[in-house]
Design a protein that fits this description.
Elements (H helix, E strand, L loop, with lengths): L1 E2 L4 E2 L6 H10 L6 H6 L1 H6 L2 H13 L1
Antiparallel strand pairs: 1-2
Helix pairs in contact: 1-4
């Protein structure tokens, strides 16, 4: 969360390790069909599910 003027970080939704893992997945580069089918996991931060999907995409 960002607040104030000038803006500053107040807190994060996820811990640093989770943020790093989500960034490493780069889900925004996935095929659009995969993004649409995994929307619930992406929006909900379902890290384990997203890692499974990423592993499947890498195996192709």
């Amino acid at each position: 969360m960002i607040a104030g003027n000038p803006a500053r970080v107040v807190r994060s939704r996820f811990d640093r390790a989770t943020v790093a893992a989500l960034v490493a997945l780069a889900w925004w580069d996935w095929p659009i069909g995969t993004i649409l089918s995994e929307e619930a996991a992406i929006r909900g931060g379902g890290l384990a599910r997203l890692q499974t999907v990423a592993a499947g995409l890498a195996a192709r």
